[in-house]
Amino acid sequence: MEIFRKFGFDKPLFFIILAILCFGLVMVFSSSVILANEKYQGPFFFFTSQLIGVLLGIVLAFLILTVKYPFYQNKYFIITLLILSLSLLTICLMLPSLGGTKRWLYLFGLRFQPSELAKLSLILFFAYYFDRNQNRIKEIQTLIIPLGILFSFIFLIIKEPDHSTALIIFIVSILMLFIGGTKIKYFLFTGFATLTFIAFSLIKSSYALTRIFTFISPERDPLGSGFQALQSKLAVGSGGIFGVSLGESTQKLFFLPCAHTDYIFAIIGEELGFFGTISVLLLFGLFLWRGLVISWKAPNNFSRLAAAGITFSIFFQAMLNISIVLGLGPPTGLPLPLFSYGRSSLTMIIFSIAILLHISQRKRNDRI
After folding, report:
1. Long-range residue pairs from 113-116, CB within 8 A, at least 24 positions apart, any chain
2. Other CB atoms closer than 10 Å to residue 61's CB: what's the count?
3. Rounded to the nearest 10 degrees, how much is the dihedral formed by the CA atoms of 254, 260, 266, 267?
4. How many domains does the chain have?
5. Which positions ≥6 away from 253 have C-beta within 8 Å?
6. Terminal Cα-to-Cα distance of the chain (whole angstroms)
7. Contact (CB, 8 A) for 309 and 127
8. What is the pLDDT of residues 39-51, one digit of tens each?
9. pTM here?
10. Mean pLDDT on 291-311
11. The domain containing residue 205 runs over which residues?
12. Can you state the angle between helices 343-360 and 114-132, rounded to 10 degrees?
């Protein structure tokens, strides 16, 4: 029923991702060179680590693209990934906190965030479940299992706490419900119930409330909780139209915390100005376009839903990070996909994109 074209993947998407990765490597080096020299006595520490992650990710992607069988569509692979994600999220909550949160695991000397794996496992599970239950998707009892799993993931992630990832998972899951053909009333009910749960958890969390109040009025504590938000906006604003020039940022001189991770977009704005920030937005806009084209042309319902879920997940994370950097949302510790330093996040995103590219090289055989 399908035609597999080896390395016949979507070339525009491939070059868009390649451009983002190259752009990201340059900015990781520029934003981290001072910190790396100070902390590790070498300017290339973070750049080298990120470059290794990019190269390993590209190798992994090409290996996936050579596999004819869509392994990510296999029931046992999806269930294993789902159970692994739930297990790792649960283990996180049992470990000592790091920086006031319990988001990280240390595996073989590497720091890994299970919520990154959780996003992909949920997307694949929703695609599989909705594909298998196409004829019963409008019945409320059909939604009990996926919604139960969704709420379990969101509950565990919020307990870390990581409200931004929970919000992304919620948005992507709701969109997949809509694309999958769920009735509007069930779609609205699920959205309302999930948002109420997230809002209730925010009210109960002093950690989250502090960040919300800081977002509303960072000037109240400019040297404390509001420092990061103010420095971020200062960095972007000081860049002007053309920026202060690549490598010439002053905010990365220990003024802006997390300059090479969560707030790398601020350094892009300072060094490359308006044109640099618009370039980032354009690249993610092009990524959204090609991802949706792949979803539209997908050979089956599973691939259509999975491609849409992966595309929306990466795009919305990028937009949420950019909004936070610009002061349009409370700080959450969310990286900018493919730009921010972090090998575990980078590897999972490249793995997800490899699946998206694999879907693009499988075509429906209309002759059969």
Report:
1. 113/344, 113/345, 114/85, 114/88, 114/89, 115/89, 115/157, 115/160, 115/162, 115/165, 116/344, 116/345, 116/348, 116/349
2. 21
3. 80
4. 1
5. 34
6. 7
7. yes
8. 888 889 999 999 9
9. 0.90
10. 94
11. 2-364
12. 20
